[in-house]
Amino acid sequence: MHITIRLFAGLAETIGSSSLSFHATEIPLTAGKLKELLSASYPDAASQIGASLIAVDREYAPDDSIITASSEVALIPPVSGGENGTIYESTTDGLYSITDQPINAEKLLDDVLDVNHGASLLFIGTTREMTGEQRTTALHYEAYIPMALSKLEEIGKEVKNRWNANCAISHRIGLVGLKEASVIIAISTPHRDTCYEASRFAIERLKQTVPVWKKDINESGQHWVDSDQKATDSIHK
């Protein structure tokens, strides 16, 4: 069985390609077995493959998930956070988007305002210069865009269900300079306490589950940054 596997961030750099055409002889093929086969076929990347997650049809897949020839497969490395040109992709309602252009915070806020809501918040994540003694000059973000949009939409639905909140999220990809916004989350709720809770939940869940990767560009070079929380936390809950 031949399958095509999408690769991202440092894993794509190590293997030297953003996709693989892989032939698997074992049927049925599970996500766990695929990782074993890939690790054996690409020993230089085995440690990265072992720490990665399989996504099947844009959902994180436990090890026992079955992969078929028609499956859309991606290997998601445990890092978080473009190319030249303009990229803007969004969900059909326009509330969740991925773009390589500066994010319009005012528009996001306008998207969530409600005459029956008395509280609204904008969370804006920006590029900072110093992390400890390390000086950053810029960040570069990469995303698995279709799955990222789906996961952002899931966050918005959960925020709505738990706090009766309106939510809109936009994430930047490509090069993001100092003080520029990489992610903006807009929230509105009837009361301020739930607004704070919903906003905090949204950014923490984004860091856990949305396939976006961050490369730190600094005076000594550049490297992909490990995330604080691994996506494995979410799929085993």
Can you describe this structure?
By secondary structure, the chain is α+β, with helices and mostly antiparallel strands. The chain folds into two domains: 75 residues, Beta-grasp domain (Ubiquitin-like (UB roll), Roll), CATH 3.10.20.30; 147 residues, Aldehyde Oxidoreductase, domain 3, CATH 3.90.1170. The chain has seven helices and 17 strands. Strands 2-1-7-4-5 form a five-stranded mixed β-sheet, with helices on one face. A hairpin with a 2-residue loop joins strand 4 and strand 5. Helix 5 runs antiparallel to helix 6. The longest helix is centred in the middle third of the chain and has 19 residues. It starts with a strand and ends with a helix.
What would you give as the CATH superfamily of the largest domain?
Molybdopterin biosynthesis MoaE subunit
- Percent of residues in beta strands? 35-45%
The portion of residues assigned to helices is 25-40%
The N- and C-terminal alpha carbons lie at a distance of 31 Å
Shape estimate? globular
- The CATH class of the largest domain is identified as Alpha Beta
Q: Spatial order of the strands in the main sheet?
A: 2-1-7-4-5
Task: Encode the helix/strand succession as letters.
Answer: EHEEHHEEEEEEHEEEHEEEHEEH
CATH architecture of the largest domain: Alpha-Beta Complex
- Summarize model confidence as the mean pLDDT: 90
Poorly predicted runs of 5 or more residues: 79-84, 228-237
Radius of gyration: 19 Å
Category from helices, strands and their pairing? alpha+beta
| Total number of strands | 17
GO biological process, one term: Mo-molybdopterin cofactor biosynthetic process
Pfam families: MoaE, ThiS
Protein name: Molybdopterin converting factor
